[in-house]
Amino acid sequence: MKSYLSVRETAEKWGVSERRINQYCAEGRIAGAQKFGKSWAIPADAEKPQDPRRTRQIKSDPAKTSVGGLLDTKNLMPLMNTPFAPGRCREAVEAMAEGTQRDIATAEYSYFCGRPEEAAKEAEAYLTDPDMGARLSACLIYAYANLSIGEIQRAKFALGELNASLAAAGEQSAQFRAAAAFIASTGAVLLHLPLPEEMPETESFLPQLPPGLRAFAMYVQAHYLYLKEKYEHSAGIVEATLAMGAENYPIPAIYLHLVAVMDYMSLKQPDRAETHLLTAWEIALPDDLIEGFGEHHGLLGAMLEAVIKPKWPKDFKRIIDITYRFSSGWRRIHNPLTGHDVADDLTTTEFAIAMLAARDWTNREIAEHLHISANTVKRHISEAMKKLNVSARKELKQYMLQ
To answer: N vs C: which end of the chain shows fewer Cβ within 10 Å?
Structure first.
């Protein structure tokens, strides 16, 4: 009879953390591993997966990648790090010199405009680039773009490359370590995954980043604090970062304002949340930079339904299309790795209302926020509970985003 080990026993045997074992299992890298409930059983004779820096491939592509090499910071998420006036995003990209920097910026532009197929294609050419600025950027874009087009194995490959780069960064320069930590933390936090074991404290790598990326790193930190339910601290970071010039960098500014919406809705301050949402919208709309709104939909406390849908119904529909595509891929990575089964069978309206209910908003408060009747709110919550097979309102939280 075949014998199995628990996650804890396997972690002790291989000298790694339990989190790493769960990650190996979720990625299908341990032959014969079986999932029972929220835990894994690992064959006692299973071999420890090899270092991903030596073995990771894209599907059947035999070309191997290696971590290390030169880092050109001009190629590290260049559009994110570029100040431009709203409506001038395309001009900012075209003003860059032909070559790697412009190509990476073009991939960013495609992604932030909600065109993941184009972004994935544009980023793919740089996945094994010798310059780590280009490679790290390409892997991040490629991972998130592939979530939205259902290419989950490709997304996992790219996320694995980010973690491998961080693991190797200790032997590199301070600038390399900062770049790897910035990209890896962005990859993990936005998917609500545990931070890689090798992740340094934010304060240690933040000074090494250029200003636009530093602003986005502060968004990542604020998002992380939000997940820890430290809403006031998170909002304080956002407000301070915006006050210190982050508004000059449109892409980080959009994301900073969106996490502020998340914080203030959790603090039941919808007026302040609406101010931040409309500011983000004013920045994004002239360049069609709407991807972030779709990514954050479930966390925004039905603010898109309350504010964007009535005045910009066509744009709202596009955002919801982005939400469905992104969240489907997001769950296929997030749920297996964390054991947290975020609901995947609710409509976006049901999910948004259930999120507010899980944050202790009453039916009347939700109704006033959305300008609908309390009975309509009650109907949506009842339908959500029915789909999730829960009988008590307090049970909703286990299926909401955390």
So the answer is: N
243's tokens: 């006050």
Q: What is the C-alpha separation between 251 and 89, in angstroms, rounded?
A: 10
Q: What is the pLDDT of residues 136-191, one digit of tens each?
A: 999 999 999 999 999 988 998 999 888 888 887 766 778 888 999 999 999 988 88
What's the CA gap between 261 and 272, in Å, rounded?
8
1-50: CATH, from 1.10.10, 3.40.1130, 1.10.8, 2.60.40: 1.10.10
Contacting residues for 26 by C-beta, under 8 A, at least 6 apart: 336, 337
Residue 217 contacts residue 202 (beta carbons within 8 Å) = yes
Q: Is residue 49 left, alpha or beta, with left meaning phi > 0 and alpha meaning psi from -120 to 50?
A: beta
Supply the pTM of this predicted model.
Answer: 0.78
Average pLDDT of 324-331?
A: 83
High-pLDDT (> 70) share of the chain, % = 89
User: Domain residues of the chain, as ranges?
Assistant: 1-50
- Which tokens go with 139? 């892997």
Answer whether 307's CB lies under 8 Å from 313's CB. Answer: no
Q: How far apart are the first and last CA of the chain?
A: 40
Select from 294, 302, 334 the least CA-distant residue to 318.
Answer: 294
